[in-house]
């Protein structure tokens, strides 16, 4: 039996994730009190369901405090348990609630929207560490749908799942990053007109960066740091570790190094690679949005 738990901040995209799972054939339960998780799993297993998705969040009130304990109980009985925690920056959440005109579930007793968001963030701090965190602040809904699909299609992971995530500092550091490495000091392919429209996954950019000794040294230093400290994170019972690699626009250097690192860790642990800024550019172009600078995202 596979169970996918969904939790996170209100307005961070939990409904989108649940819809993806329901469309994929999962039995979906929304807003379940955490204390009922074991009973639900036992009931649905007995009823013959093999794929279940459950949303547990602050709408169920104080019972969310029981979620860490219930997750441990499920891990001992469920063959494939996965946990996605969705979050977003305050400004993104405020904009979403303003657009939909919905009330935040914790905006009661005189609390403002900003105060409600902070109360929820504080209450879920311990829960966030249990799952695979996704910062949806700048994600197009279709990108989030694709990332959720990728996550559920992975083979069941034994132990640690290691994610390498490229990003652009011009958009801010992702909230889901556990370790952040800044590679903006490296030579930038953006200033070569032939390379500017490409990404760190394209061979001409790869050839350019492979020809720069500093890129090789930086990549190896990051690899060695992660390799040396990964056992400590495993001993800390961490199921997911996100290593974020940032350059200015998240298009060339960070993408190349994230792919380079992922290739070297495959076979040792379960590895995921994501490119936040290139996904953003693709979504913007699909929506007809063009950078005012022509291609400023690549810097």
From TrEMBL:
MF terms (GO), sorted A to Z: ATP binding; GTP binding
Domain spans labelled RapZ-like N-terminal: 1-152
Residue ranges annotated for the RapZ C-terminal domain, each copy included: 160-277
UniProt KW keywords: ATP-binding, GTP-binding, Nucleotide-binding
Entry binding sites for GTP: 57-60
A Pfam family per the record: PapZ_C
Binding site for ATP: 8-15
Highest taxon above the source species: Bacteria
NCBIfam families from the UniProt entry: PRK05416.1
Name used for this protein in its record: GlmZ(SRNA)-inactivating NTPase
């Amino acid at each position: 039996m596979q169970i996918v738990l969904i939790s996170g901040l209100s307005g961070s995209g939990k409904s989108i994730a649940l819809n993806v799972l329901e469309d994929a054939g999962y039995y979906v339960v929304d807003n379940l009190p955490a204390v009922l998780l074991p009973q639900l799993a036992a009931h649905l297993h007995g009823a013959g369901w093999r794929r279940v998705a459950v949303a547990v969040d602050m709408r169920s009130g104080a019972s969310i405090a029981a979620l860490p304990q219930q997750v441990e109980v499920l891990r001992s009985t469920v063959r494939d348990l996965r946990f996605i925690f969705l979050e977003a920056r305050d400004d993104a959440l405020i904009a979403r609630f303003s657009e939909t005109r919905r009330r935040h579930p914790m905006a009661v007793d005189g609390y403002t929207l900003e105060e409600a968001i902070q109360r929820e963030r504080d209450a879920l701090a311990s829960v966030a560490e249990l799952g695979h965190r996704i910062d949806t602040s700048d994600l197009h809904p279709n990108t989030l749908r694709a990332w959720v699909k990728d996550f559920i299609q992975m083979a069941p992971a034994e132990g640690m799942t290691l994610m390498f995530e490229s990003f652009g500092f011009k958009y801010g550091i992702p909230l889901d990053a556990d370790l952040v490495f800044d590679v903006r000091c490296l030579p930038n392919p953006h200033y070569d007109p032939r390379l500017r429209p490409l990404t760190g996954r394209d061979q001409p950019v790869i050839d350019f960066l492979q020809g720069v000794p500093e890129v090789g040294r930086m990549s190896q230093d990051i690899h060695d740091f992660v390799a040396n400290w990964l056992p400590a994170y495993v001993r800390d019972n961490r199921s997911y570790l996100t290593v974020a690699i940032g350059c200015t626009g998240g298009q060339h250097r960070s993408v190349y190094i994230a792919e380079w690192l992922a290739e070297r860790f495959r076979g040792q642990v379960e590895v995921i690679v994501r490119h936040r800024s290139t996904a953003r550019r693709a979504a913007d172009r699909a929506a007809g949005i063009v950078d005012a600078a022509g291609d400023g995202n690549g810097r």
